[in-house]
Write a structure and sequence with these properties.
Strands 2-1-3-4-5 form a 5-stranded mixed β-sheet, covered by helices on one side. β1, α1 and β2 form a beta-alpha-beta unit. α1 crosses α2. With about 110 residues, the chain is an alpha+beta fold. The protein has a domain of about 80 residues: Glutaredoxin (3-Layer(aba) Sandwich), CATH 3.40.30.10.
Length: about 110
């Protein structure tokens, strides 16, 4: 398996419809995975950037959520309208700042 430059972990956790936290799957994350994978293929970047499903990332209140590595940032409130911006930024090794809900923590000294 090739090591990629960047991984996007998309929460696809599904809770019961009446759960107070909701879930990322209820907020469209399963389709986000499909669209991001296709976006990386369309950009010729599928060998360098990977969209992966993930179980709960503990961000369901702000879902659909994505964690991008190695930048170690969390995106929240992601919709299908954000796919192109996320894919373009990931391919360039950048972050979509308007979607960041948890930036990386400063290194502890």
């Amino acid at each position: 398996m090739p090591h990629r430059e960047r991984y996007l972990f998309i929460c696809t956790n599904r809770r019961p419809d009446d759960h107070p936290k909701g879930s990322c799957a209820q907020k469209g994350s399963e389709e986000l995975v499909r669209r991001l994978k296709a976006a990386f293929v369309a950009r010729g970047a599928a060998g360098r950037v990977r969209a992966c499903t993930a179980s709960c990332l503990d961000l369901c209140e702000i879902g659909a959520s994505i964690v991008q590595e190695p930048e170690h940032v969390a995106y929240g409130h992601v919709t299908l309208a954000d796919v192109d911006a996320i894919a373009d930024a990931a391919v360039r090794g950048e972050v979509v700042e308007r979607l960041v809900v948890f930036p990386p923590r400063e290194a502890e000294t």
